[in-house]
Amino acid sequence: MSSETKKDILINILKDIQRNYGYLPEEKIRKLSKKLDIPVTDIYSTATFYSMLNAEKKGKNIVRICNSPSCYLKGSLDILKETKKILNIDVGEITKGGKFSLELTSCIGCCDKAPAIMINEELTTDVTKGMLKKLLK
Amino acid sequence: MRILEKTDREAWRRAHELGPQKTIELLKERGLTGRGGACFLTGLKWEITRNTPADEKILICNADEGEPGTFKDKLILEENSETLIEGILIAAYCINAKHAYIYLRGEYHYLREKLKQTIKQLLKDVVSDLNIEIVEGAGSYICGDETAIISSIQNKRGYPHFKPPYPPSHGLFSKPTVINNVETLTNVPLAIIHEDWSDEFRLFSISGDVLKPGVHEFKIGTSLGQIAALVQAKNAKAVYFGASGGLIPFVPNFKVSQDHVCKEEAMLGACSLIFVSKNRSVLDLAINIAQFFTHESCGKCTPCREGNVHTLKLLEKIKEKKATEKDLLLLEKLSKMIRDTSLCGLGQSCTNHILTAMKHFPDDFR
Question: Given a cut of 80, is residue A3 above it in pLDDT?
């Protein structure tokens, strides 16, 4: 492959950083900027576009509840309500002590096993309210 | 399901016997069309790319199925990645690409390691020096659009671009690029080795108010009643085609094909059927889907970015019983305006669900 087209894939690198730190710390972005010769602003521009990349610190574990039509029809809002109750936070918030963040997400491709949720990068399907306490320990 | 059949590299060997041009001709004869929704002849796409003069050609496998209700590519990635990789090898051989990317949706991260192993094995088996790189998406619906994938791999925000130029002449890093999705590429080896292979068979992702959701293979033209019986959809009221395809009322003898769905002003797309039963209000679904598009609009062009916010507001107003006749007219007008003036496929289709729901179920909006 020619040098013109051989490039480091930013999105892959950012995800690796996030796997280590839970989010994208500014000092790591600055280091990366020098290494790849991409302006810091450009890296942030890319990073903030994607809902699974976090430019700001979040909870240690990110709980994403799918609310796409198939999950909605199978009771995703009940799952959301119960999760809010267990974690005692609203969507977009972090629990006291920083263990969990709660978010709604677009389709995660588990429509045949709805409702589904994602904790960090792990998918859990056919979720019932009863399963949540154990999942959110 | 034929799509899960292993070919033991027989298609690769056959493609090598035929050579690139004849393999392309064979695929054109077989009539293989893209499974992403546009139904473009795959062989023709490859031929254009192959014939565009350039020092380098690139292949991208779109494994970023993000349309709500779609999970068929996941089944292939889970259960038959070797036929997919064989399809990638054949495609790269035919267009003369030395580099291929698999744009894997972030939600399918758990499939990455297995996919890497399959790639390693296949490259060894067929002694190929093709460089296949996996790029993981990071949660963006628009990155299923081919021009947005290009932006994403080029380290930019996943913005779509105006076409033309089309990727086969001007794609990734401005090089001629073929972008095919997982189902299309997995069909390549099968279409090459089976004389009775038919483009009429599609994978359908079926979910919603059904007792047996899942991926099924149906012939185009199968009736909704037959599908409903198989997946046990009881008391069906309507069927959505993903979120962007809009809906049609459930009519048992309705034949599911691009043309028939199109006549109803909806779009079959990637054959994702979400059944909705009679006890539902499509207004609630409209709010749910409008929330989805408001979140997933990339923000590049105004009609989609601003329009979706306002259609959602109007739908919520209707739900609160505060809407006037004028609001309903405004919702329809705004939905058409977004459809007619947005830049990409997302914007042009994001209000199909509102327009088709208002047309077929006006009482739900009163």
Answer: no
Contact B271, B203 (CB under 8 A): yes
* Residue A47 shares a structural domain with residue A66: no
Task: Say if residue A4's pLDDT is above 70.
Answer: no
Contact B237, B280 (CB under 8 A): yes
Interval B234-266: pLDDT, tens: 999 999 999 999 999 999 999 999 999 999 999
B36 reaches A (C-beta below 8 A): no
Would the CB atoms of B138 and A73 count as touching at under 8 Å? no
A7 and B108 within 8 Å at the Cβ level: the answer is: no
What is the domain-level CATH number for residue A84? Answer: 3.40.30.10
A133/chain B closest Cα distance in angstroms: 23
Query: Roughly how many angstroms between the first and final C-alpha of chain B, as a whole number?
Result: 44
Q: What is the pLDDT of residue A36?
A: 94
Domain count, chain A: 2
Per the CB < 8 A criterion, the answer to whether B337 and B214 are in contact is no
CATH T-level assignment (fold) for domain B201-277: Ubiquitin-like (UB roll) (3.10.20)
Homologous superfamily of B2-193: NADH-ubiquinone oxidoreductase 51kDa subunit (3.40.50.11540)
Which residue stretches of chain B have pLDDT < 50? Answer: none
Query: Are B175 and B165 spatial neighbours (Cβ–Cβ below 8 Å)?
Result: no
If asked whether residues A66 and A53 sit together in one domain, one would say no
* B247 DSSP β-pair partners: B240
Residues 6+ apart with CB under 8 A from A12: B135, B136
pLDDT at B78: 97
Residue B36: its pLDDT value, please? 85
Greatest Cα pair distance, chain A, in angstroms, is 55
